[in-house]
Model the fold of this input.
Amino acid sequence: MPGPTLLDMDDPDAMARAETVLRAGGTVVLPTDTVYGLAALPDLPGATENLFALKGRESDHPLAVLVSDAEQGRGLLRDVSERVARWTERLWPGPLTIVGWRSATSAPFALGEGSDTIGVRCPDHPFVRSLAAAVGPIATTSANRTGEPTPTSARAAVGSLLGPADLVIDGGPAGTVASTVVDTTESQWRLLRLGAIGETELGG
Done:
């Protein structure tokens, strides 16, 4: 069985091919500013089911969403507080995932079972932000099999999955530290995962 199509991020056709695959409901391995991600569009029926299958991940562990800019990201969150707005202006683009209640815009997104919340991040990666500007918010999870280490190359990411993604964009070596995740659904925010942004950078 042939493997997935692999394109260098600097290939002139890479962006258009990624757009086409995502709009068709396919899956794409993408470079980000943290780890390689496995992506699909959350507003297309059935598209994100492939992400869970490729990772061997249960659907009760929701997917996060990558956005093009702070405005697109805030539009997916309901009742954005002053603190969250400051984070989006000061720490985005960057390795911070903000979990909040879904807005009317993000309510229909297929990100997993039984959750009224959404994790949103604006990555410090021009290719991904340009892609999200073109196709809309992108459902993403780390491109590795659940429970296994996070690969640092596109080819290793592909090899770690349970099946082939439809397209792989090779952006060169990636890091292994994921984003910091904060829960903002209550009046006092809560750290869910310590990653590339330290707690002191978030403030009190």
Observations:
- The mean pLDDT is 94.
